[in-house]
Q: What sequence folds into this?
């Protein structure tokens, strides 16, 4: 019998990250300099990011990258994460499907974000920097980066999306406990923040705004670089530890997933989970269905456009080709959680555009239905973000019940919802609402796309 | 090399609980009926507790009790818990000591409490009850019981100490998500609550008050029994899974602890962690130093009296012989966390009284110093309760540094502090205070001890 929880031993942990771009026939489109419309150089990118991370960002060819020893040590603090067989959920659903989830929530950041935070902090330290700046939405990335910076003795400046800052005072306090400096975004501490505040008074912020502020804070301060928790190719590469561990565990127990599901905001957890499986698919060694799940309130893959766009609202960042709703898209404050980003990882975007994976959007109330059901049956109270994947995993398992198919479903449970109780309270009180942007709203924000590519 | 985290495999998990009373030469003094001063009978105790649990409570002789299959299944949802080698902390302290901790926080209740909650819910279900009532202090026990009740489809009524109810609205919300009904205590929903409110208007409550209310709610409702998260012998017995797992892991890797440390409120985690090791000591097979750590603000072992006392403020419960500050003792609301109980497990009390273990009290600020240090070095943000044990583990490791001794220290990290950020905020803002009751205050509350035993 397959155990409830599969824990790899420490010597089975991945010692290299996997870069799925190396196996992609069509590489993600290059990042462009908005001023010239030409691909950014390593030198340009190193103005924003640590040099080593800029190199990783531009490397479409190296399939495996050694994980430095100090990062491997830190990983052992909270990894391996368990691959859990959802026996209780299978029984409750009375489905012939076999359900597994890779649970990344057993660390204080409450999510998978620590996998990339520690890598980015390491390279910043190695480069002799004083500190880093970043944005955070739900607060998981900011917490993860605070932990990583505390470990390496780096200063950490976090711009936190205002709606989260207000809904999650305790997230802020965790970051402070790890020594970080946290500012609600948009703020008057940056030029771009002041401009956004003037243009959208009363805005509750977005990841796009917060990115602009954090980038400005980095490029205008000596000894600081900017780090980002999702979207980037380097982040997906660091997150490949999720998929590599999952694949090792699956292979060890002869588990063959048919469907692999992950929630998708910027795409980092999904990209990390599917990476090595996608590699096998790209190399023709195996086949899987991959499903990206996004909120109906912020549907970049299912209703966005595949085009070059700014990664941030303030249009200070380079351009990426990606599925986007337009960098001016302001997600509804009704929506809980960290999937409030207008764009999508260029890797995920390209794979999706080639038909190598699917995408589905789900509404908030049905996501919390799934979250509450999962909490009661499987014990763990999931993060709202992760619950998007749970929703679709349950839907697929129920479909198997109808058809009698014994599919094997693997999904990413990226984190816990302990800091999301304001959202759960709304749900418990019947005050949660579903918000779907109208076609007109989307057309308006898509009109802001730059004329490139 | 010993791994950072030792996870037992599922077939190494304990299949029986261990009842340390069976190996004690002097048994804990019997529970007395306050009306007659005579030992309570099984029949009397069954008026409050489920019959099977009442039997376990009175059983001083059976050393091993089979864990029912349904409980074993549930345990697999979140157990085994890891035995962690604190390599990072050892390095930071530059100590020759080897430090291990058994981490019980990787579940949604955030603590070890689930180990007994699921057992008590199981026996309630098996007895055909409609539901259970209980109290909760920091909220960990209430959350654990809510989870257990959700699993078995039982109704769950929780009386939550008012200071926690107010400081931890999100704890309340987690319980609601698991379907529990939560009332701040003291409340006007019970006779005893109304009396306490009249006598101490404006009180922020205590575990003792909340127990009285929960017991009253149980005995006055059809189909309900009362369950308790600590203090009782049955609870320590269920918690023995902590110690049994820890001992199996230690034996497997030839780890020989010299000092075993646990925080002590009612004594359940400490009693569970030390149980099998204490068994070896009692049987003369090995020797260990055991240290109970309590808050200086609620020092039942270090400044209390070993005497018969009520378990609750309302004096509706049977009498236990224990180290107590008097059932009228109202702990300072300044103190964060769940160690605010006037008494101590009768098992721990007897072992302490016989000199088989030590006790130490620590002040709040130094506890949060240790907590913050631990969070930054070992990654996990600890619960304030657990941080009492961290404080003393660090102190002992620093002593080893002075003496050059290579002691092996094992402590219980009972839970995470994600719901304790109000307390961390006070600490981060420099507004945390230390409170130590005066001798006069203690003399006053000890004057309420009944004249028995």
A:
């Amino acid at each position: 019998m397959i155990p409830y929880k599969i824990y790899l031993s420490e010597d089975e942990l991945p010692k290299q990250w996997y870069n799925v771009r190396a196996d992609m026939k069509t590489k993600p489109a290059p990042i462009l300099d908005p001023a010239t419309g030409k691909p950014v150089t390593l030198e340009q990118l190193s103005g924003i990011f640590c040099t080593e991370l800029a190199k990783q960002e531009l490397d479409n060819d190296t399939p495996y990258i050694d994980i430095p020893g100090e990062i491997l040590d830190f990983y052992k603090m909270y990894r391996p994460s368990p691959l859990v067989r959802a026996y209780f959920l299978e029984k409750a659903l009375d489905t012939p499907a076999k359900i597994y989830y890779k649970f990344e929530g057993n660390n204080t950041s409450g999510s998978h974000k620590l996998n990339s935070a520690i890598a980015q902090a390491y390279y910043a330290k190695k480069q002799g920097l004083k500190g880093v700046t970043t944005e955070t939405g739900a607060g998981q990335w900011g917490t993860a980066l605070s932990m990583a910076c505390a470990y390496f003795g780096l200063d950490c400046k976090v711009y936190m999306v205002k709606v989260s800052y207000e809904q999650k005072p305790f997230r802020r306090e965790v970051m402070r406990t790890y020594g970080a400096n946290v500012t609600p975004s948009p703020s008057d501490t940056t030029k771009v923040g002041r401009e956004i505040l003037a243009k959208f008074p009363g805005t509750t912020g977005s990841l796009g705004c917060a990115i602009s502020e954090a980038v400005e804070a980095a490029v205008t301060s000596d000894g600081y670089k900017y780090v980002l928790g999702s979207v980037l190719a380097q982040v997906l590469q660091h997150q490949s530890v999720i998929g590599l561990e999952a694949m090792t565990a699956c292979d060890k127990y002869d588990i063959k997933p048919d469907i692999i599901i992950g929630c998708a905001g910027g795409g980092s957890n999904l990209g990390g989970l599917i990476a090595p499986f996608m590699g096998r698919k790209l190399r023709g060694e195996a086949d899987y269905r991959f499903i990206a799940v996004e909120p109906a309130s912020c549907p970049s893959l299912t209703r966005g456009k595949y085009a070059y766009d700014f990664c941030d609202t303030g249009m200070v960042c380079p351009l990426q080709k990606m599925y986007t709703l337009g960098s001016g898209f302001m997600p509804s404050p009704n929506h809980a959680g960290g999937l409030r980003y207008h764009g999508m990882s260029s890797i995920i975007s390209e794979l999706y555009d080639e038909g190598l994976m699917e995408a589905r959007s789900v509404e908030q109330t049905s996501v919390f239905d799934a979250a509450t059901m999962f909490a009661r049956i499987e014990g763990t109270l999931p993060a709202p973000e992760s619950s998007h994947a749970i929703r679709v995993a349950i839907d697929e398992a129920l479909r198997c019940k109808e058809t009698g198919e014994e599919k094997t479903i693997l999904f990413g449970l990226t984190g816990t919802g302990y800091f999301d109780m304001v959202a759960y309270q709304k749900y418990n009180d019947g005050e949660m609402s579903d918000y779907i942007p109208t076609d007109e709203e989307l057309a308006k924000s898509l009109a802001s796309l730059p004329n490139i590519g």
